[in-house]
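Follow-up to my earlier ticket, as requested here are the two runs.
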Amino acid sequence: MSTPNVPEKPALEGLETKWGDRWQSDGTFRFDREAALAAGRDGVYSIDTPPPTASGSLHIGHVFSYTHTDVIARFQRMSGRNVFYPMGWDDNGLPTERRVQNYYGVRCDPSLPYDPDFTPPFEGGDNKSTKAADQKPISRRNFIELCERLTEEDEKQFEALWRTLGLSVDWSQTYRTIGRDSIRTSQLAFLRNIERGEAYQALAPTLWDITFRTAVAQAELEDREQPSAYHRVAFHGEGGPVYIETTRPELLPACVALVAHPDDERYQPLFGTTVRTPLFDVEVPVVAHHLAQPDKGSGIAMICTFGDITDVTWWRELDLPNRAIIGFDGRILPEPPEAITSDAGREAYAELAGKTVFSAKQTVVELLRASGDLIGEPKPIQHPVKFFEKGDRPLEIVSTRQWYVKNGARDEELRQRLIELGREIDWHPDFMRVRYENWVNGLTGDWLISRQRYFGVPIPVWYPLDGDGNPVFDQPILPAQEQLPVDPSSDPAPGYDEAQRGQAGGFVGEHDVMDTWMTSSLTPQLAGGWMRDDELFDAVFPFDLRPQGQDIIRTWLFSTLLRAKLESDVAPWRNAALSGFIVDPDRKKMSKSKGNVVTPADILERHGSDAVRYWAASSRLGTDAAFDPQNPTQIKIGRRLAIKLLNAAKFILGFEAPASLDLAQVTSPLDRSMLQNLADVVADATAALENYDHARALETMETFFWTFCDDYLELVKERAYGDATAEQASAVVALRVALSAFLRLFAPVLPFAAEEAWSWSETGSVHHAAWPAADEVAQDWNADRAVLAIVGRALTGIRGAKTAAKASQRTPVDSAVIAGPADEIAAVESAAGDLRSVGRIADLRFASADELSVTDILLATAPSEEER
């Protein structure tokens, strides 16, 4: 055995810096490509690590879920796998743009020229109260430069925090979703989608966020309860008025039909007839459709272009005209639909033109009240309204030309294949698979992937202009693979020069960028070197693990699986691990919008990284965990455990050990019982971690570790301190074997404390040591595993008797009797010497009884020399 190098006072403070620097300089967690290629695919464990969004700060929820991943990575590394554990940064997207706008007080205006000497109005403020109109407009290139500057700073802070936490990431394997390689990969995958007919462009009703001025995909929606009101409005029919109830009277000029359920006897006579709209006097048909709800409102509804998703369905399936009246800015368009021809109708529309939806609603209500077509007063209600998940105002539906990728919504064969691939993945916990399948089966439209933003991966497409200068959208110009990456807004189209941009007979570049999920859905390809490094990609793909939050199953998990299916017809990973949410003490999910998030830097500094990791690892996958920063009980327990691990190691290493640890030297029934129990712990913890149940593994290890410290160490310390006998050697070898196993067992959860204690007597890193095996901890002794527990109960009885007598635990005992069943007494007798020593018992006798207990204990009357 190497000579122990144990500090006089072991402490957790400073271990993060000490070992973080050492791991970095030694390349402890670097992916060994040569060894991985030699071992083959089964010798590699690859992780599709979530790239955090670089738009602000990390919160305690990130620490929670990323620790779960790191525990598995460390376990797999110690189990002999070559771990490929990269880290990415998700730079592009709306959150980054919003942060840049707020941070620098700017907004993007693509019509402005680039200013190489631009200085932002300020730097570092949150600017949340400043209106967009007050922000300084700058060119797209200037805006993107600010995005890149700020995200790079955020990423440095993120990496520093991850290093402090002890993530065993290979920091040489990092990528940015807006980096050159990422843009190239994203554009190449998209072009292949076009070539295979999986990506297409269409003019269609689109969910639109009027604040961000961008289209929104189905996966980015959320319902929020909003106050509204039902307005009972009369339409004019030949047989008399027809009453509808609507929450959106401002869309009356966009009305194209009335609809009722085909089985609704009240309205069956009206099907096939027409009515005229109030105020605007437009003739619209009365139609039947199964989505109409007889029990909602008056049972008959107006179809407008477009009030909600159901309107879009009716419009498409009933082949109705489009009379959209809402512009991209959320205001009523200046020109009325062509169907409004009467002077009165056009005058009414003129009162709405240019107004916000809210103001237009008020105006229409007043006009209806004046015309007598508003029946009664509006009835207040609360109902769910569609919002962009990052937006502040209800979505509108406008008609736009957008790019889409097929996702199975309209292709049953593709949908079923996505379900099949989902079932090829092992889900942890398994019930999360149902959420994935529910999402796939509930898709209503293909994936809208174009965004009207600036900081993102450009859609690599140009359009030829005809003789009149109009784009020919159905003849897109695509770049060759070797030209990628490209930016059509600044690069000329293939076969053209820049002077032909915007000219008749020339070209125009696509200004839209891809939805950020179009890049994030390629994280296995980005990290693994798809179409860039075939050797690496073959070594790591399909990945072994996709860890992520349960809230982005519908976005990140689904979209990644979709892209892998379209490209390779395989599932991109073998396992999916879904973490739960962090909730505050009131059980509310922590989120920036609610203002209840906790940033982790202070928690890590105050309690130490191992303590925080312990708290995270104590929660099972898929289970929410409460966190109270004022009373972080679990973190305090974790700190106590880490300190105890150091102190136990110091204590055990204080005994001189033989040159090699030979289990044949372990002869004491108590020592063998302890090691047999430890072997069971090793087997159970290993099985739990192989099944991605880190919480069960930790619970198993921790429970026995405290038994080991509280009972076993106390029982054998006098024997271990004794003269060099076979009994003494048995204790010391058992202690050293147990310590080695414990340090390796706890290494994935408490990496800093485990590494520190390991370094006192071992060479190399504990994180490269072999994961313990049951047969190296104990032999097939057929020992009585219950001995440790039974003797521990006897020790507790002795301690309890002294406590009841208000005596020190060091008080000598003249005599004591331990009574119990024969088999338990036999167990206690096998460790009688240890009990006498720890209890300072002069005369220890045994008796028969139904239950084990300590009786007739007689304390020494005079204090011992030690007590004096």
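Run two:
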Amino acid sequence: MKLIYTDSLVVGAGLAGLRVAIASKERGLDTLVLSLIPAKRSHSAAAQGGMQASLGNTVKGMGDDEDVHFQDTVKGSDWGCDQEVARMFAHCAPKAVRELANWGVPWTRVTKGPRQVVVNAEKVTIEEAEEAHGLINARDFGGTKKWRTCYTADGTGHSLLYAVDNKAISLDIPVHERVEALALIHDGKRCHGVVARCLITGELRAYVAKSTTIATGGYGRIYEVSTNAIICEGIGQALALETGVATLGNMEAVQFHPTAIVPVGILTTEGCRGDGGLLRDKDGHRFMPDYEPEKKELASRDVVSRRMTEHMRKGKGVDSPYGPHLWLDITLLGRKHVETNLREVKEICENFLGIDPAEDWIPVRPTQHYSMGGIRTDAKGQSPQLKGLFSVGEAACWDMHGFNRLGGNSLAETVVGGMIIGKYVADFCEENTLEIDTALAERFVAQVRDEIDSLVEGQGSESAYELKREMQRIMMDYVGIFRNGPELTKAVEELEALLIRSRNLGLKCKKRHANPELVEALRVKRMIKVALTVACGAEARTESRGAHAREDYPQRNDKEWLNRTLSSWPSADATRPQLDYEALDVMKMELPPGYRGYGINNAIAHPDTEKREKQIVEILSNLGEEADRHERQHALMPFEVPESLREKNERLHDKPLGNSQQLGEESK
């Protein structure tokens, strides 16, 4: 057995994982990152539109602050998020953006004076303040009150990943590439590291560490069509699930993005609509104002996806060999804007569709995009059940997104969550020791070796590729944008049958080293378990909340379902997860459940909501009018972040306004 020791082990080399690794290394800790692919090829590079942070530099962002960002995030989550975590996030986001600028991210900047933008399909001239010239710019995104999404054209994820990876390189953080974690080493109470397999040589290694951070991204590839990279298969979540100890949170919370191109499912950023793009049906009609007259195309993305699906169900979709679709029209933005601020979208359209989006409409429809669920952690990013196991980014249910994520909040979560949780990971490593138990490590290595032996030497007849295709079809057909009881029951039963079949997997290629079929066989049984947690959670949750939309239970039911789903795997021979629930305490919420602002308000109220609202009024009245917004916030819901991140954020509008700033105000 090859055993490798480090203080801080990170599984996943995307933005979230690298940011945790940087925080550990800066503390002088021995740090090591494992990755399926070279770090700069991680899925973080695919993020286009930007990251949210309440800088308030632009005219359209004036008046923005942590309070507004927090409120948007909570409402966007449909009151499913951890409000303490949402506060931590909103407070630290401006710090992360500025830190990234120092690391070399070429943020798009404000240019003083007049500029033309498209708002509600009309060209409008706004005046940017002289004082804002050269500061970080922001664009509009769905579900937000202010223009808050900081960006670098439409290649924001690419820019961030290169800058953060270069920072990691400058710190000499080693990344073991083409290595896949297959099991967590643990004693039932404490995580000791992972068993990993080299994808080139087939060698099994035990990586032992004081802390283990899972940052492997989401589980979109359990679906047939997804905007996710093909490596986003939920294996990180599966590793935690298979411990039988650690829990996964809100796995049924799966988001569909409104504008993926047809048929391949590649994302066109929300920045297209944020910059003024429109959605049109087969008749060329702009239909979103018919459904959401206030926010239109910039309603929260779960809402837009449902409205698009409803419209296609009415026969308003464009017929194609790949099924109906709708149009995304960004021609009104003009060629210069498309080629400057949406250049990745232009290249995608040219290379995959053979069209010019500055002149042609883009065929789009909602496609699986993001996983709000993941490894359940506390506010410090650690599993409540398994000490020393941390998770961050899309792999985690930290839980700042609840049941729906706002556009721009995921790219922000990778670096903001990584920055915050990275410091807590470093604290943990400094404050805790680990007795290296080689026998424990050998036991888990032996289990993985036996699993590989049974695949290579066994006489199984099931094909990993066939099982994977079946799983993806089931998820697409029955656990999609709209869900209902009979279809979810069918999904659970069919996935359960697939899991049983996966115990009889066989290989045509018997190689133990670079063998894609072996890799697929090792992954697919884990993926099916993850798919079962999604389907079982969705079947059990008899309400509609955020991206979880039950046609047979259309109301958000705070009275019975204001809770977080916890999934665990009861035993190795089990065929379904065990579901438990973690209640969200209304009496501790800064923002009690209310109306999101879309459609009719049909929510069933929680019995404590009215009580908490009265309590908030009393708390604020006792503070008096002299209290500032920070004191008021602290009185309602105190939150903690690492000491080095506690300083208040400064913004342009905190300073006296010049004449040009006042002109900017008038042009809003």
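The only thing I checked on run two: The chain has a mean pLDDT of 95. Let me know what else you need.
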